[in-house]
Amino acid sequence: MPQQSPQSQLSPEEIERLARKRAGAKIGWYFHAAVYVAVNLTLFAMSDQLFGTRRWSMAPVLGWGLGLALHGISVFVLGRGSGLRERMVQKERERLLREQERMRDR
C-alpha cells in the first residue's frame, strides 16, 4: 500500500464529508435496487394476467438491469477509496501542484 504524501492527507472534516457522501451513494443504490425488484416483479405478474405472455416483460428487466449494474459499478467500484476515480483525482492534484510550483519558481 503506497504511503500518502502530506498534501493528500485528509482532515477529519474531509473524511466525514467523504464518508457521508459514499454512504449516501450506497444507500441510493440499495433504494434503486429495491425499486427495480418491486417494479419488475409487478410487471412480470401483470404480463401473464393481462397479456397472456411474459416475453415483453423481459425488456424492462434487461434494460433497467443494465442501468442498475452501471449504477452499482459507479458506486462500488469507481467510488471506493482505492478506485480508479480516486487515483485519477490524486494524479491531477499532484500535476496541478507541480505546475503551481513551476510558476512560482519563474
Automatic annotation (TrEMBL):
The chain crosses the membrane at residues 27-46, 58-78. It comes from the Bacteria. InterPro entries: 2TM_dom (IPR025698). This is Membrane protein. Keywords: Membrane, Transmembrane, Transmembrane helix. Residues 19-92 form the 2TM domain. It comes from Ramlibacter tataouinensis.
